[in-house]
Known about the structure:
Blueprint: H1 2-22, H2 31-65, H3 73-105
Helix pairs in contact: 2-3
Amino acid sequence: MSQGIEFNRLMMDMKAMQMDAMSAPKSTAAIPELAGSSFSDMLGQAINKVSDTQQASAQLANAFEVGKSGVDLTDVMISSQKASVSFQALTQVRNKLVQAYQDIMQMPV
């Protein structure tokens, strides 16, 4: 049950980040300064959330392995899959960022 609540909180955080990104001021003077800071902050937050998800999954798996009461195998598997999917998503974002950087670097000046 706590996994569903955590998923809902994650979805609400993602929607809030999307709304923040969409409501950013559009003046040309503020865009480079805000975009660099906001993007790096958002990327750092995403990396931290993936790390937290992986650590929570590992702790849940360890609790199940030692036989702690109240830890169900289905919760362990769901947590493990959430950690795997979040890491794969982060890897794909990283790949897209690297590709975008390479494309920009190959543009003629």
